[in-house]
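Deliverable D2.4 — example input (structure tokens):
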């Protein structure tokens, strides 16, 4: 198989500015960034990850509002090109700490040096963070990153801000003797509800993600739930039943089958120890129930009731509920439940989209919204058609320190025998929505 070459790589800001622009082979037009941005900006819907234009292949990935784009005039392997962009994003994040516009602009020289080592005349040489440390010596410039949930958690001696993991992997960090290991169990939910509130289908895409700042390169031993079951057979029993899973190449699975223990030497940078998928139905974090009521001549009310099934000690941050309204709607006003704080609604007449924002949704609580819709006479004469034009209701949220599947880290051992070696272990659970939908 011939080697795969990339002619051009660039990073664009949300405004279309070229932050990084590297033309490796000089066999593509110099205005490729402008061409790409014009095509992507005016695409109907989201631009596809790969598209052709005037004999050039544009492979793109959007992260944190930034466009990461490869351009080639060769017949490249699509999975290879997309994985290359993923690896470039990971390496830049490892070396800069965070992946945003400010970090990339401040670390321009460092990123150019990284690209020079990863890609030589368009041919990929290697994208391992650990190996690149041998050749890249520029010190990164750290930037502040805002909290994703929009508010600060109270700190004590047992907790640490999630932004603590946003530190560059560098030689200087090793000299600071800050021995820390960060473990994130992240689960993304794909749930579809029927109009009566019953679950139509459910799937959990999860991963155990790590970032190591340990000196001496010690081995790690991670214990998961002992009654963890893996397989698609219907007679499997356990606190967590996975359909399938896969592991990072560094993981030793010799004790996994019987004791559910993972052994490995963590590579530098952020990496995924384990990916898993679960389709077994569990109690969802939220239940959505929509209702329609006749509110008088020319008026129909849509009531959206959401029940938070989380324990009282948990909460969801920055909950956003969206619902497309009928095309024929004349106007819409909203009422919220009594005693409600930290909530707001917005209706756009241009896009016919109703947006309901809840800053903090406490576990065990219930919220509802009543949308008063004004409809023309012909829409009221065909209520079924009007109902089909509405929805579906979509919901975005993030729940810190909660695991929907029940997968837990029983223990995290670091095999370093020195008595002076006192590492800090930080374990965080995050559950967030990927596709959380309720049909109307």
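Example output (designed residues):
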């Amino acid at each position: 198989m011939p080697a795969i070459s990339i002619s051009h790589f660039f990073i664009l800001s949300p405004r279309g500015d070229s932050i990084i622009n590297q033309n490796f082979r000089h066999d593509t037009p110099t205005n490729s960034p402008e061409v790409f941005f014009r095509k992507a900006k005016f695409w109907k819907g989201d631009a596809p990850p790969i598209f052709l234009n005037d004999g050039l292949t544009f492979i793109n990935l959007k992260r944190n509002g930034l466009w990461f784009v490869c351009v080639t005039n060769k017949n490249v392997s699509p999975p290879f090109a997309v994985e290359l962009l993923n690896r470039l994003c990971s390496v830049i994040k490892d070396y800069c700490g965070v992946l945003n516009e400010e970090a990339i602009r401040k670390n321009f020289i460092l990123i150019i040096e990284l690209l020079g080592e990863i890609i030589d005349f368009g041919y990929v040489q290697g994208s391992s963070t650990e190996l690149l440390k041998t050749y890249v010596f520029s010190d990164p410039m750290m930037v502040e990153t805002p909290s994703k949930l929009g508010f600060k958690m109270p700190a004590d001696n047992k907790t640490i801000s999630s932004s603590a993991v946003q530190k560059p992997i560098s030689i200087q960090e090793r000299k600071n003797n800050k021995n820390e290991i960060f473990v994130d169990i992240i689960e993304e939910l794909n749930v579809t509800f029927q109009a009566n509130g019953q679950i139509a289908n459910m799937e959990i895409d999860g991963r155990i993600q790590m970032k190591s700042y340990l000196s001496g390169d010690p081995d790690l031993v991670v214990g998961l739930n002992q009654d963890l079951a893996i397989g698609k057979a219907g007679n499997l029993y356990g606190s967590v039943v996975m359909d399938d899973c896969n592991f990072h190449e560094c993981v030793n699975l010799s004790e996994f089958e019987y004791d559910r223990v993972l052994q490995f030497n963590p590579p530098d940078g952020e990496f995924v120890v384990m990916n898993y998928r679960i389709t077994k139905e569990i109690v969802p974090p939220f239940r959505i129930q929509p209702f329609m009521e006749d509110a008088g001549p020319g008026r129909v009310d849509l009531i959206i009731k959401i029940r938070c099934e989380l324990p009282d000690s948990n909460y969801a941050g920055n909950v956003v509920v969206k619902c497309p309204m009928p095309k024929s709607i004349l106007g819409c006003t909203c009422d919220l439940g009594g005693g409600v704080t930290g909530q707001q609604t917005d209706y756009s007449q241009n896009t016919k989209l109703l947006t309901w924002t809840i800053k903090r949704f406490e576990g065990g609580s219930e919220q509802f919204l009543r949308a008063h819709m004004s409809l023309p006479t012909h829409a009221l004469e065909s209520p079924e058609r009007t109902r089909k034009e509405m929805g579906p209701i979509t919901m975005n949220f993030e729940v810190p320190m909660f695991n929907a599947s029940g997968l837990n880290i029983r223990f995290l051992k670091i095999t370093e025998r020195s008595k002076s070696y006192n590492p800090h272990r930080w374990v965080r659970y995050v559950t967030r929505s990927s596709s959380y939908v309720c049909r109307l």
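The chain has three domains: 8-132, 177-282+402-438, 286-400.
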